[in-house]
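Quick question: what would this complex look like in 3D?
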Amino acid sequence: PDNLVYLTLTSGPVVIELAPFAAPQHVERFKTLVKGGYYDGLPFYRVIEGFVAQAGDTDESADKQPLVPLAAETSTAVTQLSAQPFTSVQTQDLFAQQVGYWQQFTAGQDPQQQQRWLLHCPGAVAMARSTELNSATSHFYVVIGQAPRHLDRNMSVFGRVIHGMDNLQSLPRGEREQGGVIDNPSRESMILSARIGDQSHFHNKLNLQVQLFTGPKHQQTLQDSRSRDNPFFHYKGNGNLDICYYPVKVKQG
Amino acid sequence: PDNLVYLTLTSGPVVIELAPFAAPQHVERFKTLVKGGYYDGLPFYRVIEGFVAQAGDTDESADKQPLVPLAAETSTAVTQLSAQPFTSVQTQDLFAQQVGYWQQFTAGQDPQQQQRWLLHCPGAVAMARSTELNSATSHFYVVIGQAPRHLDRNMSVFGRVIHGMDNLQSLPRGEREQGGVIDNPSRESMILSARIGDQSHFHNKLNLQVQLFTGPKHQQTLQDSRSRDNPFFHYKGNGNLDICYYPVKVKQG
């Protein structure tokens, strides 16, 4: 519960699961800001159809104390991760040598370069930054469209949405010509409150259960998806899987 | 305009561009039903997070005249398409030998089997069917999540959403355990009206402009995406592109 963040947007509840194993400093920063009420009342001010919804403080008043920029956590040396298994789902994916699951998150791995990283699948939560790699401070985005895998290894993914994608995908879009920035963010795009491990501000209490990807049910799903050994499929495919289509499911119940 | 369908959902407007070149019989059926007011008042009764939103008539009263099932149009022989160019974007994509654009739609092509088909990218519109390949009649779905490419060559894609994805992605989800079927579809999920080439029922008139993918601007976008020759990208990738991330854009203006 210490790694679950409960957001109430104007459109409804959103729950983020944090990934301290992949981006410890980003998770710590996010938690600190959430605990301090930093995001309460801030808008999703940049929402691009088929891409991301980004939130943060756009008020650049001179009297604000700037936050210290974070060192990027775009990937982790595998040598540090011997105790953390990687369950491979697909080799030679379009973008990575190996993709699969790292804990309950979709991840990529490069055996030569001995690096592992979280993927920009739908629902991925990452910190925004400027051109400079080590420049993230507080603005964050959620992937709301087709996986922008070109951001893998470039941005620090530190969590994923496990509930309420509909409430993010319903946010008003900005114009692409203006980089998706919404001219005048209204109450419609607001984060009303953000809390760690505490959903007492939710109207309906959620009981979310992450389904283990190592479980036999999940393995069977992947096997069935590869073979398409089901009369519904008249074209049986080539056995390849897009890892971003198979996130570790979270059940409400 | 004859191939644009204007839907008004409870959540807002949605515009579909039809693809008669790929699925002529499905387009004809859809147009006939729209013109007859068939979809007016029907719900999106099956909405699955990360997958599709499906609409149709779930009332199986015995006194209704059943519609004649359609022969599948899951792909087209390339030999028939010599006058219709295919602009390749990526070879050896995870699922197809070639992917690119066919008219303004994302498509796949198999040079050996001489087949071409429309892809299940976000926004793709296709007819639902039972296990039997030639069984579609009227229920249709829209892809609202990561591209379910395993449905390529299995289902008849006949259009794409060019406006209002937010109004589809905000639809209430059903439970996965129940195949995403919503127990009791309410007004929230309703198609209030559907019209061909006529947006007079829209509150705000839209002026949608499809950007030509053959244009130099689009080609430059793809080239820049391949090379990531931009200081923002510290990891430059391998030059591969996910075609579903690069739909032909539609501008409002």
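Answer marked as accepted. The two ends of chain A are 16 Å apart (CA to CA).
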